[in-house]
Amino acid sequence: MSKLRLPKKSYKGIKIFCKICNTDNTNCKHYDKQVYRVRVHVPGTQKSVKTKKLDAVNYDDAVIEAIAFEKELNATDFITIGSRKSENITEDDQGNDYSIADAIIRFNQYLNGQTNYAHLKKNISLGYKDELIRYCRFFCKNINLTEDISKFRVKDVSKKHVSNFYSWAEARYAEKTFNKCMAALKCFFEFLIDIEDIEIKNPFRKYVIKEVVKSSVETVSRDEFLQILAAIDTIDPLVKLGGKGQRKSMYRHYLKDGFRLFLLTGSRREEVVNLRWSDIYISPSGVKFFRIKNIKVERIKNKEGIYKYIPINDDLFNLLAEMGFEKNKNSNNYILFPERDVSALTIMNILSKAFTYYRIGAGIKKDIGLKNLRKTYITWVNQVMNKDTKILSSHSTDGVLQEYYIDPTVLTAIEKGALEIKIFG
């Protein structure tokens, strides 16, 4: 295909669009993927445009087709464009008349920090981003029952669509998850309104939030924890998969050490899995403790250098000694599974699934998972620390002044914790 060309004074709104580069008037050489495209500004708006890829292969025919498109828009008051697919617009203000499918793509890019505006870059965890996009995709699938999501515009989302999705989520989720689902869609439309400047009202602005009944904190008892550890040695580790005769093993050699680290540090999954020997520090009085980045608080505050502290009591030090403290104390190796050949996320998921698998295998009916080990730790720490518990939890201070000097309040709490905390009493 020959290269498309525009005259010096081309008809207003006509561009050469590359389907590969996904942009107008590119200097690329994807000649076989280039088409004429027209962009028409929507009267009464700041940035909204209607766009259409033209069938014409020469400029004169493209002008005729563009004029016909403008007449169609004017005749229908710019509202009957839903029968065609909205274009996937690039970042440089080329319009925001998105289909619902394209809008979710833009939202995903925004959550990934793919924006030219530094003040708009998001700093959220991968898990939270995936959760937001997952609920948006569910909304897309719900709309797709009656509409073509590649053509259906975000401006056309009505109360009826919200109602249908509300009923779908209500039947599928418990109260807490339901509220998270609806909040994700509200966040999605806030992005379209506040960031993409789409002139619509948020269809998810008002809905009835489900009342969440606060459940009791489930902790793990000493007997339950020992039963789970014992099950690792006694229960058949092979579990059947969905395929024909496929089976996989839930066993890993680091499971026991991993579960014990969770219990004795009270830390979150990524914190435990990423613990290194070099994270161990010694106070002026000789008390050992972990100093690790408080990843959750750093993300919330969008600020680095915020730490949390984990006192190393006798139980935890005995575990570390078994895992090679003397050999590795000056190294930067991971404490858990140092010879790892998989990602940290994979190890986290293995530990979570294995804990549940062996808990069921041990005959424990109580609905507890890996996260309950953190609740158990905090519960027992509270018996010793009382109001100072928060200093050793995920909300600890960032008062690190230099490598071996920390806020005296934190230091006192660490020393007290290292001396007095005993999980299971």
Automatic annotation (TrEMBL):
Among PROSITE patterns, the record links this protein to:
CB
Q: Where is the Core-binding (CB) domain?
A: 98-193
Domain of life where this protein originates: Bacteria
Q: Where is the signal peptide?
A: none
Keywords for this protein: DNA integration, DNA recombination, DNA-binding
InterPro entries the UniProt entry points to: CB, DNA_brk_join_enz, Integrase-like_cat_sf, Integrase_catalytic, Integrase_recombinase_N, Tyrosine_recombinase_XerCD
Family membership:
Belongs to the 'phage' integrase family.
Q: What is this protein called?
A: Tyrosine-type recombinase/integrase
This protein's species is Flavobacterium erciyesense
Q: What's the source species' lineage?
A: Bacteria, Pseudomonadati, Bacteroidota, Flavobacteriia, Flavobacteriales
